[in-house]
Amino acid sequence: MATVTKENIGLLHEKLTVKLERTDYLPSFEKALKDYSKKANIPGFRKGMVPSGLIKKMYGPSLFTDEVLRTVDRELISYLQNDKLDIFAQPLPLETDIRQLDVNNPADYTFHFEIGMKPEFQLADLGKAKITGYKVTVTDEMITNEIARLQNRYGNMKDEDVVNSEENVLNVVFTEADEAGASIEGGITKDNSLLVKYFKEKFRSNLTGKKVNDLVTVQLDKAFDEKELDLIMSDLGLDKNDKAAAKKNFNIAITKIGLLEKKELNEEFFNQLYPNQEIKTEADFRNKIKEEIEAYWKSQTKNQIHDQVFHQLVDHTEIKFPEDFLKKWLKTQGSAAAEDQQPVVKSDEQVEKEFPSFISQLKWTLISDKIVNDHAVQVQPDEIRNFAKQQLFGYMGGMGAAAEDQPWVNDYIEKMMKDRKYVEDAFNRIQTQKIFEWAETQVNPKEKEISAEEFSKMVEEHQHHHH
User: Fold this and answer.
1) 110 FRET partner, CA 20 to 30 A, in 150, 233, 329, 386?
2) Which residues have C-beta within 8 Å of that of residue 9, sequence separation ≥ 6?
3) Domains along the chain?
4) SS3 278
């Protein structure tokens, strides 16, 4: 009768020994051999009439090995399930000489495996965490700028014959040139569209009076201030930190001159943006825009609270890991060259380099699983359907709500619900959101007023620090 024993070999690191007696696998091997002889199709013999000795000689060794290993696997799984062992990954086989398996001399066999045990741990106390709840101050200037953006976005573009305003929109072609203005063969060429006011104030006079097909030669850093220069260089495929590249010369050919006529602030425009919302005056409109800006920054600051909670949980939850086991697993099982291929064996140096990031991700997985299990965090199919619908409407912009009752919307959602990868991704995203929503109920953020610029800079610096 097969036996499985467990022996501790390190922190949360166990060795399992599976001992098989020949009676554990021999009957099933002999049955497999008999079944195979009935199905075997060998030239010179009628089907099902192949002598058992020939079948054993030809296929016995592989069938024997398969049956022994299948029996080991079955005993191992049964032991893990009966003892309710909570382990990382799959058991790793220790060196075993498969050559010991001899179909002609069935014997008792012993196999060894390593397992890494999942640890017991307590979550960091979120109630004691120092969390800052930022509140972005929405200024009149932010509201005015957003209104101007909407007026431009919904405005009408009319063609002009000549450049006569810093509000003119120019369609241009950038062509790399030398100092004399001669085009460089094989140099950069790129279409663009930009306002005259994007050029440096001192440079704009060089554009006044220009017509379609006229040309101006510029040195980039002399034509554009820093912010616009960064954008232009990125668009041209240049490194914005390369000072030499900023001094490159370009011919700018004007292909079209336009002037944007801003949308008037009137009830028709308000109704176009917010139908059936009874926005009749400019004051109503400003209040609505303020609400939307506040909602946007509220979602951004909420993400920031989630980020603080994440670091609180990861940095202050103490979890011990079976590091020896996990490094061995990462070395031999942690990655595959491609789907359905054998894992790539990594060097010790690669394992040491990847291990801190691997442990950090594993730690968050354990923390997430604990929150999900301890606090019954569930994701229902209807929530995934609604997620798919909202995502679709997000792609469609303002047209989404109008299409809600269209039959094709439900057809699209049913199609997405059959896409296993999409459903898994949506499930994980919704579950993660719910984990953070639970965590939010555990913290007591201290409110702090902050400007939009300061908040954006803080988030950018944080992201840069963690990359």
Assistant:
1) 329
2) 15, 114
3) 3-117 (3.30.70.1050), 156-261 (3.10.50.40), 282-465 (1.10.3120)
4) coil
